[in-house]
Amino acid sequence: MLSVFVADESGLINRVAGVFARRGANIESLAVGLTVDKALFTIVATGTDATVANLAKQIAKLVNVRYVEDITDESHVERELMLIKVHAPPGPTRTEVTQIADIFRAHAVDCSDRTMTLQVTGDVGKMEAFRRVLAKFGVVELVRTGRISLKRGDRMFDTGAWSQRQAGRSAPACCRAPAPPARSSSTPRAHPSVQQPTAQPGDGDVYASNVLDAAYDTVAAVAKEPDVLAIEVQDVPGVLNQVTGVFARRGYNVQSLAVGNSEREGMSRITIVVPASTSSIANLIKQLNKLVYVENVEELTLVPHVSRELMLVKVACSASQRGELVSLASIFRAQVCDVSVNTLTLEVTGREEKMVALKEVLEPHGILEVARTGRVCMQRDSGLDSKFLGRVAGSRVML
């Protein structure tokens, strides 16, 4: 499991995926939290220690990559989000599906006269167990984010090397910090993930530049809803590089990307959100359909669909503040997934507006780290458009 923090720019996702494609490495899971100026990749890949170390080394050479860290052996919180649609007609079948959902702490997000769509978060084992239990009812559609992770407790990602290197480059020679003393051969080598200084609660809302925002753009108002594409592809090495290459060659800056296994064996589903462009989105879909390993491309922008994201946020928290933060979390239906003496890590799912609202109420306490997945979407069989209903007051449509 690699954590990669980058300064975002057009085509960067394609370059990161290209490192794996050129070496024939298959990405098992990819979660990307994107903002206008930065992005956090969480990549799960298979291979020997030497292979993974070489991949990390090659990624670190890319322009605008701030840090790369292998957190496989670190103690960390790991979560992913899954939307699963199953056959559940009214009657005993739907009752049983609802009972199973309660056991796994899943939530129903859509219901029709034939199917139910459920949302569940957890680690890989929980996701696989939930899928297998529901398999007997018949899985109609499944979409998953990649895995995201934060280190447990006060430990944070090792980002100091990049900031020190950039500061050294920009400062005059007379102003640069002196070089550290040489390490003697008898001194034991420190682990690359050295423990960061513990942030003290109440430090205000001054954070390091490596804290990811809760949404792609929390300031600028988007005049038009971005386009959402669900792309089903064969699970082969290099397919993500091919798909993202289509977007990179046409100058699209991807706003959200989520990659996970689909309901069919050997297939994966990629959910991509791109800026709206009515004139060229049809041509983009045609180019995607021409790719060898692409099975199906579905545009969900104008159809009623469920849209969800997952966010992990680590907050500075003293013992006296813990009760207040837990109360705030319950309002947003967030769950506490890790506690230490000075920190609290929360897990929350929902739409971008919910993520931004939670971030605003947590900022006074001091946000230390944020990890986000991309957006996952699934068409509503009920046909209900929640955005349209949000503008309805009684029988009147609010314009």
UniProtKB/TrEMBL annotation:
Keywords: Amino-acid biosynthesis, Branched-chain amino acid biosynthesis. Residues 169-193 have a biased composition (Low complexity). GO terms for cellular component: cytosol. Residues 1-73, 228-305 form the ACT domain. It comes from the Eukaryota. Residues 168-203 are annotated as: Disordered. Pathway: Amino-acid biosynthesis; L-isoleucine biosynthesis; L-isoleucine from 2-oxobutanoate: step 1/4; Amino-acid biosynthesis; L-valine biosynthesis; L-valine from pyruvate: step 1/4. InterPro entries: Acetalactate_synth_ssu (IPR004789), Acetolactate_synth/TF_NikR_C (IPR027271), Acetolactate_synth_ssu_C (IPR019455), ACT-like_dom_sf (IPR045865), ACT_dom (IPR002912), AHAS_ACT (IPR039557), AHAS_small-like_ACT (IPR054480). This is ACT domain-containing protein. The lineage of its organism: Eukaryota, Viridiplantae, Chlorophyta, core chlorophytes, Trebouxiophyceae.
